[in-house]
Amino acid sequence: MKLQNIQNLVRASAAYDLLLTAPFATPWTFALAHGQLSTLNQALGGAPLPSFGAMHILFACLLGSIVLVWSWLRLRDPQPQFAAYDGTARFLFSTWFAWVLASGGLPLVWLFLMPEFAWGVAQWSAFVIFRHKW
Fold first, then answer.
1. What does residue 82 show for φ and ψ, rounded to 5 degrees?
2. H helices present in 1-79, as ranges
3. What is the pLDDT of residues 9-48, one digit of tens each?
4. Do 42 and 107 contact (CB within 8 A), yes or no?
5. Cα separation of 61 and 59, whole Å?
6. Does the pTM of the predicted model rise above 0.85?
7. Long-range contacts: 2-8, Cβ < 8 Å, 24+?
């Protein structure tokens, strides 16, 4: 794998994260996203999402803020080793999504789990190939 290819992959995953995570960065945008996600979960056959209290929103926004900063870094400086770090984070996130799926009633989570795991596989594979050829 060429350096340019892995850099493009790191940038693409960062752009995906920016778009998907931006609504989780502030309490105001999160409130809008929560309502839309609840509606989507119901359309997929699940229950309405539970209401969030201030502490839930705080942790959602902290996570959203961290992911935005991490995404911006990868967009500006797409180092090959970031593919391995990001892939690891995605496998961890996928584990937690799978855990929530096991609790039932949240078909919406599949829409997060599948791309999350796919990005993890793509980045880990690319990094392993890049390191092997490097």
1. -65, -25
2. 3-21, 27-43, 54-76
3. 999 999 999 999 999 999 999 999 999 999 999 999 999 9
4. no
5. 5
6. yes
7. 3/80, 3/130, 5/126, 6/78, 6/80, 6/83, 6/126, 6/127, 6/130, 7/78, 7/79, 7/80, 8/78
